[in-house]
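Long-time lurker. I teach an intro course on protein structure, and each term I like to show students one example going from raw sequence to a predicted 3D structure in token notation. This year I'd like something fresh instead of my usual example. Would anyone be willing to generate the tokens for the chain below so I can use it in lecture? Attribution to the forum is fine with me.
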Amino acid sequence: MEYIKTKRYFLSELERESYENCILNNHPELKRDFILQMDDEELLERLNIK
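-- Reply from a regular --
Happy to contribute to a lecture. Here you go:
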């Protein structure tokens, strides 16, 4: 799950969209709006990845 370790604010818009789509594909219970509102730390905590 290397993609999770990437900080979203370093990504281009297209890369960020791919990153978020990858998360949604692997964790369909999370909604896109919810993911967009979380910062990286919250997202990692929610996915139980440290």
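Some talking points for your students: The chain has one domain: 11-46. Helices lie at 13-26, 32-37, 40-46.
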